[in-house]
Inverse folding.
C-alpha cells in the first residue's frame, strides 16, 4: 500500500521503538501531538491533511495510556475516508481490559474500510516469546 514518497503520521509521544524503526524506513515521517483525549485530530487536519497513513494506538495509547475520544475517532475515520488515507490501528494489548466496559476498536467503527487492525496474542500466550 505504501511508497517511499507517502507521508506518514505517528503519535507524539509514541511508542519509542516503533518510532525509531519508522524514522529509518519512512522518509516522510511526521508527528502529531497526543493529549488527554488521544491523537490531536485538529492538528492532523491543519498540518498533515495530505498524509497517506496514520499509525495510532487509540485504545491504550503508548506511552501516555490515554484513550482516543469518540469524537476524535470519528474525525480520524472521516479524514481517512475523505482522503483515501489509511489508519494503522495498533491494539497491542487488546486482550487486556482495564475497565469493566470494553472499548470498541477503531476498526469496528470503520464504515469506509480504511483501518488496518493489528493486534497480538503474545501477552496472553507468553510475553517472553515476543510473537506479534
Amino acid at each position: 500500500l505504501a511508497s517511499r514518497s507517502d507521508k506518514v503520521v505517528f503519535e507524539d509521544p509514541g511508542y519509542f521503538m516503533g518510532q525509531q524503526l519508522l524514522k529509518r524506513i519512512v522518509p516522510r515521517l511526521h508527528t502529531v501531538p497526543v493529549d488527554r483525549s488521544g491523537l490531536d485530530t485538529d492538528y492532523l487536519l491543519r498540518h498533515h491533511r495530505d498524509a497517506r497513513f496514520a499509525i495510532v494506538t487509540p485504545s491504550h495509547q503508548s506511552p501516555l495510556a490515554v484513550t482516543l475520544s469518540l469524537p476524535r475517532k470519528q474525525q480520524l475515520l472521516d479524514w481517512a475516508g475523505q482522503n483515501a488515507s489509511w489508519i494503522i490501528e495498533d491494539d497491542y494489548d487488546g486482550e487486556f481490559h482495564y475497565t469493566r466496559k470494553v472499548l470498541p476498536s477503531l476498526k469496528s467503527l470503520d464504515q469506509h474500510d480504511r483501518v488496518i487492525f493489528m493486534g497480538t496474542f503474545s501477552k496472553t500466550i507468553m510475553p517472553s516469546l515476543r510473537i506479534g
Q: What stands out?
A: Residues 70-83 form the longest helix (14 residues).
